[in-house]
Structure prediction request, 234 residues.
Amino acid sequence: MIWLDKTSGSGFKSVQPYRSGYFGVAIKLQPGYTAGVITSFYLSNNEDHPGNHDEIDIEFLGTTPDQLYTLQTNVYIRGSGDGNIIGREMKFHLWFDPTQDYHNYAALWTPSNIIFFVDDVPIRRYTRKSEATFPTRPMWVYGSIWDASSWATENGRYKADYNYEPFVGKYKNFKINGCTADGPASCRPPSVSPPGSAGLSQQQLLTMNWVQSNYLVYDYCQDPKRDHGQTPEC
Prediction:
């Protein structure tokens, strides 16, 4: 369990970095007013490459009691170094209430794809199209809960309210199976499906399409306000 109050936040970090693998955990989110608060599980090498880092993010954007949680998936590749880090966000609502019970959230990172899962259901596949648009450097596994009032809930309209503290994120059943940064070159990341199109079976592809048709609420590639010269994979 990790928590945030008006004095500090908290989090965790893996003992070693990875260069590929399956990274999953069961999370139960706090109900009620959580606007402005981010509960996350992610991979990053920001400590090794500040301002020029990579990330693979699973983030829950806090909400007000009458609204749904938003699950944001994101990929960063070699930040620009000037503070203008280019993200590749896809946001979803969920087909269940994530505050009522634990659910499993995971990312599979291979040399060719990043696939995000919710309860073993694939919701997003990010494919390697070039060296410049795919993270290849080792990353650590993190979890954190923090105040992102400036943007997290309706673009900052609702802020964190510490009358509702502490804000708590509950984590259990970690499933980490990957190739460590100093492991043998022969190591290969695990597979989560039989051989299929880009690592997903036909049934998994159909399920992912169903999720994106019914629960996707934002896709950076479909955002006309974005400069897609910075995201050529779109």
Summary: The first helix runs from residue 202 to 214. The helical segments are 202-214.
